[in-house]
């Protein structure tokens, strides 16, 4: 017990001596650091006003850029309720659209499997009608191309009503007499030939 007490007393004395030595060593170092800090603060105070004055444009520009960068976020904060409402509506719409698409696809597959023969028959009927029209048109074109004397240039028979009317008209023109009979006859003949050509053209068009 006495040995333990002596050891504890010796340890305490050694610790006290160590702290005393450290305090003596730290005291000049602390004073030196204190003076250095004081001098630094004094120089900073002296340089603050001119440096701050020179850096004012940079400071204002940095503030403006920061405000511009934060403006969208502030706007989103103001429209937070509207954003939540529109986002919810978009999600609900997408969900309903996907469900409707799946239901429509399944129903179309089910109904399409039942109506495939009818649709194929209708398509074959449409194709047959189209082929019939194309064949008829092709035959008509071949008939027109194989005709050696077109209807427009075909001569009119002498016994036709048109030729009979032409002969009667010419005889009436020659029997009129007078000095201007020939010229009147020429004009009437030209007019009649024009009407005759128009009649033949109309008859040909009606045949087509």
Draw up the topology in text.
Blueprint: H1 2-54, H2 56-78, H3 80-146, H4 161-174, H5 181-207
Helix pairs in contact: 4-5
Index terms:
208 residues, mainly alpha, 5 helices, disordered C terminus, membrane, transmembrane, transmembrane helix
Tell me, briefly, the overall form.
Answer: elongated
Average residue-wise pLDDT: 71
Q: H/E series, N to C?
A: HHHHH
Structural class: mainly alpha
Strand content: under 5%
The major sheet is characterized as: none
What percent of the residues sit in helical stretches (DSSP H or I)?
over 70%
What is the CA-based Rg, rounded? 59 Å
- Helix tally? 5
**What ranges have pLDDT less than 50 throughout 5 or more consecutive residues?**
148-154, 174-182, 203-208
* Span of the ends, CA to CA: 144 Å
Strands, count:
0
Written description of the protein model:
The protein has 208 residues and is an all-alpha fold. Helix 4 packs antiparallel against helix 5. The longest helix has 67 residues, at 80-146. It is built from five helices and no strands. Among the domains are: 10-87, no CATH class; 155-207.
């Amino acid at each position: 017990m006495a040995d333990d007490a002596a050891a504890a007393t010796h340890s305490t004395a050694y610790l006290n001596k160590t702290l005393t030595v450290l305090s003596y060593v730290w005291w000049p170092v602390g004073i030196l650091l204190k003076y250095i800090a004081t001098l630094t603060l004094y120089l900073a105070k002296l340089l603050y006003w001119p440096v701050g004055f020179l850096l004012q444009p940079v400071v204002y520009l940095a503030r403006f850029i920061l405000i511009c960068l934060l403006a969208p976020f502030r706007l989103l904060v103001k429209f937070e309720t509207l954003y939540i409402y529109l986002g919810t509506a978009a999600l609900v719409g997408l969900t309903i659209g996907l469900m409707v698409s799946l239901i429509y696809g399944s129903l179309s597959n089910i109904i399409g499997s039942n109506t495939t023969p009818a649709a194929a028959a209708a398509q074959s009927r449409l194709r047959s009608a189209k082929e019939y029209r194309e064949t008829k048109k092709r035959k008509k074109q071949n008939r027109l191309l194989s005709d050696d004397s077109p209807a427009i240039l075909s001569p009119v028979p002498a016994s036709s009503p048109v030729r009979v009317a032409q002969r009667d008209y010419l005889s009436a023109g020659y029997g009129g007499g007078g000095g201007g009979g020939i010229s009147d006859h020429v004009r009437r003949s030209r007019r009649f030939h024009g009407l005759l050509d128009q009649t033949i053209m109309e008859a040909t068009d009606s045949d087509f």
